[in-house]
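Researcher: Structure prediction, please.
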Amino acid sequence: MSNNGKQAPRTALLGFCIPAMEALDKVGRPFLAVVPPEFEAYMQEHDIAHVLWDFSRVNETSMQLSKTLQERGVEVAVPLFEETVEWAGAVNGFLRDDPRLFTRYLLFRDKAMMKRRAQMYGIRVGVFEEADNREDVSRFFKRVNKALSKLDSDVADPVHLKPLAAAGCVGHRFIRSEQDIAVLQDDEFPCLLETHLDGQEFSCEVFIHDSKIRFLNITEYVHLGHSNFVPASPSLEERRPYVRKAVEELIDAFGIQYGMIHPEFFITSDNKINFGEVAARVPGGHIFELIEKAYGFSPFVAFAMCSDPATTDEELAAYLPDERQHKDYAGCLMVYPRQKIVTRVDVPDRLIADDYYEKHALFQPVTPKVAERAGFGDHYGTVYFRGDNSARMRDLLLEYEQVDFYTSDAPAAS
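Model: Predicted structure follows.
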């Protein structure tokens, strides 16, 4: 890959992401990659135009990144990872001379603030509070179940605990009892507490330009943090008008003009939609990869195009497909070891022989001991599926969630 041509790069990609760089390079869209110092050797080896930056440091020299990118010809910054979102807000606010842009991006980094903003604009959200300690969690848990008229003998309604600024499922815990509260660690605070929302959970990947939806994908979650597929099944897709209205309300509430958002919603059987949360960077769960397989365009390129105010309607229309016309259903299973000690990967022959099986990226364990996970944590690899029937896709994902892909040759403990 070479990205050192004469044409000035309008786009800065914030974060080290090989698929994003390859996608823009493939369509001839010049870019400048802003990457942490540990990736310098890779960037030099592959002759990729870059700037080194430590995204974990915010200090009096932070404005220098915006000035450096401006000097290099950059006019738009695209956040690829959660830790680069506020940097994109700062850079784009500077380049467009719009200080409020930075404060809008900050909303995407604080789950409590984003829910409060949504609530202020009349969007349906659950009950939520910030918590600073275990006593706050216990008080919220008791209040919620008291409000639900729960008796001491009833099974308590769970509440969710999430870090304020972590991406996706990282650090997500279900609180079902006082015992769950007692084991919380001090470094998990402050955090967000919220009630459990009923309905089918799903996400959207929304490409926005000039405050208009240019492409809206609906990703169906089979099991949050474990399996999903694109596009959604017909039963969820037929509710697209309700989903689109909810997204439009979100765009208005957050004042989003350009780029991409990744909101998560819950929809009930009577089509009421509750807002979960929203991100402004590349989603997890390999969703961009699934979108490309299902629809035939690169979401990374679409993200860059929609982030740039100079992109024309004609360019977007030529690049983005019709939302209703997909090639296949593309799904993936994120695999977690089911044992505490694993020594090898064991992929069933029947999976390899299945016509919906595409490939797997299950890696050989480096150490046999499986690390403890808080919440969902990181998966050990991914199995990819592709086919033309959403019901079969769902069945396969559910079936193989129960398979032990990581096994051990060690004798079982007596």
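Model: The chain has a mean pLDDT of 91.
Researcher: Thanks, that helps.
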